Every structure is written in structure tokens, then in C-alpha cells.
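Entry 12.
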Amino acid sequence: MPYVERAGAPRLYYEVAGDPRRPPIVLVEGLGGDVTGWRRNVPHLAAELFVVAYDHRGCGRSGPADEPTTMTMYVDDLLAVLDELGIRRAHAYGQSFGGAVVIELALAHPDRIGSAILAATHPGSRHTVPAPGRAPKDKPWLQRYSPAFADAHPDLVRKDRELEGRRSRPGERRQWDAMRAWDAYDRLGAVTVPVLVLHGSQDRLVHPDNARLLADAIPGAELAILDGAGHAYHLEQPERADDVVLDFVRRHRDR
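Predicted 3D structure (C-alpha cells):
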């Protein structure tokens, strides 16, 4: 299995797909997720890009997160994966928690990013617009989906739950702690790379108004709202989401 091995840091599991001669894009998962969270997106994206996906420390097949973490540590992990593959600059696509990692990456290392896709995420703990609603207490997983999708596709929701059962709860808690201590809102005006803000209109975990906050605060940012999609927009509407991402990357592919 492909791993990034580093002294004094957890090893990181990664996967690649597509032609390495094409522009690279790194996929950065959400809270507690792993590379399987992109399973409905990788084939489409890899038809045009060189796709890199990895498991955060403490998640999936990566090593455990045994110490308190910061957002900077997750940025360093992302860069370690790119360095392992000899990639100097990549388009960075982060979903939810992964979007926060990409924001911090864009601020700290703009030279390593061709463009940034910030999806289903927010500007930080002090400025987050609260979630609009809650799923039933006996079915908390429904929070990730739009009600219409969950009703129409119980088989896909069931499969997602099976994969989520493999999640590392300690790793997820480390991410949650790092997220709570992080806020980038007052620094967003310093982002210099091209940015696409992507969000589902029916997101019940991260209010869609967070996307508007990001787009308004980041110079030149583009905003795309997927009508009817929930927090797991990339699982509910994978082809539509991928098309929006690919269109954006095409316009910045030579950066």
C-alpha cells in the first residue's frame, strides 16, 4: 500500500488515479472521512486530471493521531503527500473539514496551490453561521443528506453508513478540536489564489450562508450553489458537482 513515512509523524495512506502528466488535484476529506468518501467522484475527475486522495492522520488507513492537533499540522500532512509524489503545485479541493485545511493551505502556502475549491465549509469557529436544522435523534446520519435524497436513495445512504462504520472516532475528535480552535475569517482577504466556493442549498450540517460569507470575503472568489443538495453534495449529485469543479480547474489549469 502507498504510504508517506515521516519521522515523528503518523504515516499517511494515499491513492492516485488518472494520468500523472495531467494537472494534479488533491482531494481533502471531511471530518472523520477517508478516501472512500470520494468514490463517486474520482472516476469522473480522473478522466481529465491526476487525482490524489489521502486519509487524514487518525483516519482510514493512516497512522493514529496520538497528540493534540492544529490546522497547521493537517496542512503539513497534505504537503507531505504532495512532496512524496513530487508535485510542486496542485489544485486543492477540500470538503467540510477538508475545506478548512485548504483555506489554511492557501493562506500559508499559496505557491503550492493552482486553485482552491472550498466545499460545504465555513470561515472558522468564531464566524460560522449555525446549522439550519437537525435530523431525527434516532437517525443522526440523515443530517448529511437533503431530505429528498435520503428518501429517494435509501440504498446509497445504507452503503455510506457501512463505510462510515470504519471511522476512527479518536481521529475525528482530534479534527474537531483543531477545527474549534481555528478561525480564518479575518485573514480571508489575503487569499491570492483562484477560489471556487461550492455548497449544497439543503446542507443541514453547514449552513449555506457560510458559503456566501467565504465568497464575499475572498477576493475574486466564485460561488456555486447546488440546488437541492445536502452536506454530502458530492455523493448526492456527483456528476453535477464534478462538472462544476472541472470547469473551474480548466480555467486555471496552467497555474
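Annotation: The chain has a mean pLDDT of 93. The first strand starts at residue 3 and ends at 6.
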